[in-house]
Structure formats: structure tokens, C-alpha cells
Amino acid sequence: MLPFVPLRSLAAVCLAMILAAGARAAVEPGNAAPDFTLTRVDGKAVSLSEFRGKYVVLEWFNSECPFVRKHYESGNMQALQTAYRKRDVVWLTINSTNPDHSNFRDPERSTEIMANWKGNPTGLLLDPDGTVGQAYGARTTPHMYIVDPRGTLVYRGGIDDKPSFSQRDIPVAKNYVAAALDELMAGQSVSEADTRPYGCSVKYRY
Amino acid sequence: MARLWHTFRSAIRFGAIVITTMQLAKYSLVALVLTGVLSLPAAANPVRRDHIDVELIASTTSVQPGRTLTVALRLKPDEHWHTYWKNPGDSGLATQIDWQLPEGFRAGPIQWPAPQRIDVGPLANYGYDGEVLLLTDIEVPDSIPANVPIRAAASWLVCEEICIPGDAELVLDLPAGPAAADPVWAARIAKVRAALPDAANGPEVEAVLAAGQQWILSLPRSALRDVGQLSFFPEEEGWIEYASRQQVVEQGDTVQLRFAAAAGAAGKQGRLNGVLVAMPGFANGSSSVVVSPAVTLTDTLPAPPPSVASAARSSLTLAVALAFAFIGGVILNLMPCVFPVVGIKVLTFVENSRSSPASLRSHGLLFALGVLVCFWAVAGALLALRAGGATLGWGFQLQSPLVVSALALLFFVLALNMSGVFELGSRAQQLAGSVRAQSGYADAFLSGVIATLVATPCTAPFMGAALGFAITQSAPLAMAVFTALALGMAAPYLVLSFSPKLVGRLPKPGTWMVSLKQALAFPLYLTVVWLVWVLGRQIGVDAVARLMIGMTMFGAGLWVYGRWNTSSAARVRMTARAMAMLLALTGVVLGWPHDSVPQGSSLATTSGNWKTWSPDAVAAARGSGQPVFVDFTAAWCVTCQVNKRLVLNRDTVQARFRERNVVTMVADWTNRDPQISLALDALGRSGVPVYALYPPGNGAPMLLPELLTEAIVLEAIDQIAGPVRTAASRDPSGISIDQEK
């Protein structure tokens, strides 16, 4: 019943604790972005590390959240995805909703929803255990992150500076993600690299 | 269309003018028509939206020129649904009001009541679970029209498991005239105003950001009515980790509140603005205050707290604690861990039963002294270590593999002695039946010490509360409690030794005592087995093997000593002693536990329905509406093992846990674990076993007794878990929660 190599299991316990602590402490801009591998809704596995050399946008997503709907039903998010993918930016849309939550949508349904919205991310990824979401400290949907070509996190925060669920605010809001990407591609550093996200809570398992 | 019809009907029924801007966006044309048709002067009535009633109210039924008018947005969500504070925390959105007022009227900011913390899994929100009144003061000019329409465009986010945004335009028409209190709302609004965070008379608060990781807010103890629960809610984003546990620490005349800083907080400019909420309240009478301390940065994290105050802080008085300690000490003699030693003690009394009353008394007193000295030593060490910042509790010495190994060896030697493998000096004569009173004095003292050593891992009923009290008190008070405990434990023997008549009733000494003594060796061997098992749980089976080899060598040494030490030839005796010493030393060296002090979870794996305890896991389960049962236990705690086998793991108990949706967790304190020590402190305890049953949400936990019975546990579950909660009961309105689409 007891393990025969107690030292090794002690070490394993320690390692697990360190990992758990690490998962709790979210990354800040300037830190290395944690690598991950998730499955796309079309079944293909995608890792962050395979996009080294490109800017990567991570977008936390839940199709049933009114704040996400605000940016999709207005066409705002799709426009951003299309505009920056044209400029060689990788756009990963991640859904960390746990499968027991009423907001969870299976891969088929998710594909359908994204198609209806004419969304254009590089991939829609499911993170049902919430491990990637918690590693990044994703709190809300949407919650936006930008990783630079060297794998460093350069932006985390809100989609824009008008925390509301009204589409009328989109034209007057400052879009932080667009601003950050424009600055980065112009060779500048991001002036507002850490902003407040707003939206629904990410529906983690608990 | 059903939605539109609903809106239309309620608009007519209440005479309110309601324009939904978002959900009815598609029907905006129709809505505009409706507005035109119904644009009549109307009093605001509750407006029903998804899962919430919203209403604009005022404290007076008329508007008096030149006087301030207080209006309020009343948000009354369905049960279990909540709206948000101005800083909503990890997610969510603050309620917003846009005022459209007649010329010359000026609306002030929303006066936010103190928020509540709403845990959502690993995240935390700040808001209002249930009804809330958001007050706004409106400055009224000197000349006003006869009828004053107060218009507000309100938008809110109401959430439970899912979130539903809503908005409405509300109109409250008030006539001009001398202000007359509104019969329904004046009193309610006054009450809300009185409870607003006190911005004027708050206590002096200092804020220290330690190592960029931890916030320490300090305030004088005198600013609080009593040290209970404190919570800090920051006004702005980026300062604190919203979901971090906030811990109250008493440091002399200062009370600290410690919690995790947000990453990057050290780079922030300005003051730490927010609201501090106290239970049972501040000395100035308010329950929440506005604070805005300047920030001091330090490089070092503070030592973990020597004592922790919390809602469940021990509420015993000193007298009760002393009484509990004494009773607990008496009962301790009957606990499984002390029992083998009691047999030895009783035997000693029988041995000495025919000696003089005076010598009997000396025996009793010496035994009591042994108990006292040992208790003082252990308690003194515990208090000194805690003062030095270590998070330890009662039984801490058995968290050291070295102490466990040493005790195992000690009991093994005692048991061998009782089995007759060896005798020491004059004891041979004693066992032969020739009683000499003086010979037993050292034994009496030592048996007191040993009895205490075996007793420390156990807590008896009453004892837990007393120890929990002791450990949060000043050193002299704590020692007084430990003294009462020691006296309680020694009391039965003292009584016996001071009443010769009682001793006279004991059977006469004789050769039967040799048999009994040898028989009593076996419970001691079992004690050794228990200690060895504890070591195994601590540092694994290799250490167990090493210790048992060591014990065997030591035992061989004792046998050599016992076999040849009485030899008539001096050379044989000398050789025997040298051999014995060598074997014993080898035994100690071989058995020495090399894996020093283990920390964190022991090697035991949680089984079945028992999850591994963590504060976050408890909070998460409670946040999701589940009660939580925590078994604070340790391998070295015999009472814990007995309770587990005989009560907690019984099918009936396990079934009831499942039925009532109770999450069961094990907090294993076999090894040192500061987190568990802190949790025990917070419950007002300092040793195991502790059985805590937490209700869903935020209520105080219920503590079960140290010795469990099936009935106690079942009753407690029924009391705290209430009826089985089903998915249907979550949504009493019957409205489908799918409306978020």
C-alpha cells in the first residue's frame, strides 16, 4: 500500500504543490507565457509553442455570455480577428467553460455557433478542465492576452475601456487589443499592457 | 413576441414607462410607438426583468425647492442572484445609473453600501446577494416646476450561475411641495444611509505591501468592538488578489488583516482606497468604514501569525477553560493512547499498597510532579516555538519523525523490560515481592513523564476547547491551562494515594503481579506498532525498516545485558556491558530517521469519498452551495483513527453524506502543515481531532465533539445540510435560465 520509493513520492508531492502554486499565480506582462496544448473544435491539437515567431492573441470565450455576444453580435470581434490575421497574427479563441455548466457547448455546437457568427479565429479551442485559463489567470469572458514572437506575454486585460454590455459603446471605446497590436507592429512597446478585463466570470469547474 | 407582450402588459399594469434598450433592440420601432402611446405622468413601480425587480424610489413624496432629495434605485434579484458593487471583483459589472433631470437639478454619485464577497469557484466577486438600495442625493434648485420627473436610465448585470444584463428607463414623478416622508421608503432609505461605509470617523489604518506579495492592513485593536471578522474591499482594480483569503492576525494592541496582493501591485501609484467591513463592528458604532491608507513597501514577508483570530475564535473564559482542561485531563486517562500506561501505574500502586500512607502520598505526588513537569516542558516548547513564528499545535512533537522513532524505541525498551528480558538494579528485588517504598520514587516520577509523553498525541473531550483557548492567550495564562490539564490527568492517582482505604481494597501483592506485568507488555508492543506505523506514514517504509532493525539491535543489547550482567565473574560482566552498549549504539545509529522534518501532506492517500483538504477547496464547495465536512486528523492521533473506523467510514454515515450532498475532506496533520495549523487556530483549536461541518455559503462552522458517535454525526448533517437541494429549487420563478441567449 505504501510506495516503495518514499523519496521519489515525496518529490512528486512537492512538484505537484509547486505546480499548483504556479497555476494559481497568474502571469503578468513581461513574463514568459505558459505553453499549452489544447484541442480545437475540429479535433486538431494546437500548442502555443508552434506559433513562435508570430504574435498570438488569446481570447477567452463563452458563446453564452452576454459580454461575448456584445462583441460578436456587433461584428467587433470578427473584424479584429480578420484584420490582424491578415497581418500574420495568430488568434486563438479559448473556451474554459466546464462541461457541467449550462453554458458549455460541445465541439459540434461550438463550431456551428462560431460559423453563424462568421467568426474568424485561427482556432476555437476547448479547455474544459480550465487549466490553461487558470494558468493565465483568465477571469472573464472576454479576457484578452497578447504573446509576442519570443513567447513573452505583452498584454493582458480587457477588450476595450468601456465595461458595458451595450453594443452602442463599441464605437466610442478605446480597443486595447487593437492599440497594443498596432504599437507592437510599429516596433513600440505596449503603452497600456495591463488593463482591467470585464465580462462574465469564466465558468471554471469547482 | 412573448417578451414584448410581457413588457407591454406590465407597462400598462404599472403605468410605468419602460423602454428596454437591449433585449428589445429588434423591436425598437414598436417600443418607440409604445412610448408615445403611454407617455403619461407615471409613478415608478417595480419593473420586472429577468430574475430581478427594479424600482426607483424616493424618501419623500414631494420635492421641496432648495432641499436635497434622496432617491434610490432598488434592485431586488431572485433568491441566489446577485448584482455588483462599484468594483465588481474578478468579473461582473457595476450597476450604472444615468440621470436625466430637469434644469438646475444635480445628481451626486451613487452611495454604495458595503459589498459582500461572492465566491465563484476560484474567482471572487463583490456585490449584493439579494435586495439592495443604491442611494443618490439630488440637489434641488430654488425654483422648480409643479411636477418634477426624475428619470434614470439604469443598467445592471444580475448573475447566479449565469449572468443576465438588463436595463430600463425609470421615471419617478414627484409634485413640488413641502417634503413629506414617504410612508414606505423613508425609513428604509434612512436605514440604508445609516449603514453606509463611514467616511468621516474611520480608524487610523496603515497599509504595508510586503515583498510585493502580501498586504498587511493594521489598525488599533481599540478601533474594533471585538476582534472578529474583517474584510477589505478595494475600490480599484490591480491592488489585491480578489479571491485571496483575508486573514485576521492579532499582534498585541494591533489587529492586522493580511491578504494577497495582485501581481504588479508594487508598481501602483497612490493610496489603497477601499472599504473595510468589521464583524461585530467598529468601536465608533459603524460596521464598515471608508479607508484610504498610504502604502508602505517592505522587502520581507511577515512571519506567519502566532495566533489567529477569526469568527470562530474561542469564546471560553479563563475559568471555564481551566475547568475544561481539568475534566479533559481526567478523561485523558481513559483515551486509547494512555491506556497501556495506566495499567503500569495501577500496578505500582498495588506494589506499594502495604507501605506507609506517607510513602504512598509521596508516590502520588511524585507521579503528579512527573506529569506536570512533562506537560510544562512540552507546552513551554510549543509556546516558545509559536512565539518564534512557527505554526504548530498540540501534538506537534509527533510531527517529528525523530521524536516518533525515539518514543517507539522507548516503549520497546519498556516492553522488553516488562517481558522480563532484562531488569535494572533493584527492580529485580521488587518484582520478587519484597517491597521497599523508597526504591519506587524515581519510577513514580518517570511514569508520570512517560504517561504524559504518550498522552500528548491524544485530545480528550473538553480538552480541545481548553487547549484552543490556551494557545491564543498570554504565556502565563496558557501555562495555567496546561497545569490544570496536568493536574486533571494526575488527579485519579493523587486521590488514590491520599486515601489509604481505597488502596487497601486493591488486591494484595504477590507473584500474580509478575504475570500481570508480563501480560501488560503486550499493549505496549502494540503502542510500538502504532508509532512505527506513524513513522511509515510520515517518511515511508524504508524508514520503518531502518527503525525496526535499530530496535532489534537495541533489544539484542538489552538481552546481552540482562543475560550476563548478573554473572559472578567481573570479566563477563564487563564484556557484557560493553557488548550491550555497542549493540544499543549501533541500534540507535541504524534506526535514526534520516529524512528530516517532513512538511505538507503525509504519504497517506485519501481514499473513497474523502478529498484532500485545502482552504480554497472548502470555499469553492461552499460557494457552490454545498456543505463541507472536514476531518482534521493525523496518523499519530489514536482517537482520530478510532472515530474514522467506527463512525466516519460507516456505510450509514457515508450514505448520509452523499444524500445531503456534503463534500467530505481530510486535513492530514501527520506532518507539519502550517495551513492546517492556521485552520485549526481559526476554529479555536490547536490539536486533532477536530470535526468541522461548514454550512453552504458563509455561515459559521459547527464543531463536533472529539469522540464521535454515529448519532452525533447524522444529526449534525441533518441540522446543517437542510433539505436536498435540486436543480428545480434553484429557480423558484420557474423562468427558464436559458434566456441569456
Describe this structure in words.
The complex is a heterodimer of chains A (206) and B (741). Chain A is of the alpha+beta class and 206 residues long. In chain A, 31% of the residues lie in helices and 17% in strands. Chain A has a single domain (28-201), classed as Glutaredoxin. Chain A has helices at 6-24, 66-73, 76-86, 107-116, 131-136, 176-185; strands at 37-40, 45-47, 56-60, 90-95, 123-126, 140-141, 144-147, 153-157, 200-201. In chain A, strand 4, helix 4 and strand 5 form a beta-alpha-beta unit. Chain A starts with 5 loop residues before the first helix and ends in a 5-residue tail after the last strand. Chain B is α+β, with helices and mostly antiparallel strands and 741 residues long. Chain B has 4 domains: 41-194, Immunoglobulin-like, CATH 2.60.40.1250; 206-298, Immunoglobulin-like (Sandwich); 318-398 and 426-510, no CATH class; 610-728, Glutaredoxin, CATH 3.40.30. Chain B contains 20 helices and 24 strands. In chain B, strand 15 and strand 16 (254-260) form a beta hairpin. In chain B, helix 7 (401-419) packs antiparallel against helix 13 and helix 14 (541-564) packs antiparallel against helix 15 (570-591). The A-B interface holds A 2-4, 6-7, 9-10, 13-14, 17, 24-26, 28, 64-67, 101-103, 134, 139-140, 163-166, 194, 196-206 and B 21-22, 88, 90-94, 96, 120-123, 125, 155, 157, 159, 161-165, 167, 237-238, 263-264, 536, 539-543, 595, 598, 600-601, 603, 620-621, 623-624, 737-738, 740-741.
Chain-wise SSE layout:
The complex is a heterodimer of chains A (206) and B (741).
Chain A: H1 6-24, E1 37-40, E2 45-47, E3 56-60, H2 66-73, H3 76-86, E4 90-95, H4 107-116, E5 123-126, H5 131-136, E6 140-141, E7 144-147, E8 153-157, H6 176-185, E9 200-201
Parallel strand pairs in A: 3-4, 4-5
Antiparallel strand pairs in A: 1-2, 1-5, 3-7, 6-9, 7-8
Chain B: H1 2-14, H2 28-38, E1 47-49, E2 52-58, E3 68-77, E4 82-89, E5 96-100, E6 106-107, E7 116-120, E8 123-129, E9 132-139, E10 147-159, E11 163-175, H3 185-194, E12 206-210, E13 214-220, E14 229-234, E15 247-251, E16 254-260, E17 274-279, E18 288-291, E19 295-298, H4 318-332, H5 339-351, H6 357-387, H7 401-419, H8 427-431, H9 441-455, H10 463-471, H11 475-497, H12 500-504, H13 512-539, H14 541-564, H15 570-591, E20 610-612, H16 615-623, E21 628-633, H17 638-648, H18 651-659, E22 663-668, H19 674-682, E23 690-694, E24 702-704, H20 710-721
Parallel strand pairs in B: 12-19, 20-22, 21-22
Antiparallel strand pairs in B: 1-2, 2-3, 3-9, 4-8, 5-10, 6-9, 7-8, 10-11, 12-13, 13-16, 14-17, 15-16, 17-18, 21-23, 23-24
Helix pairs in contact in B: 4-10, 4-11, 5-9, 5-13, 6-9, 6-11, 7-13, 7-14, 10-11, 13-14, 14-15, 18-20
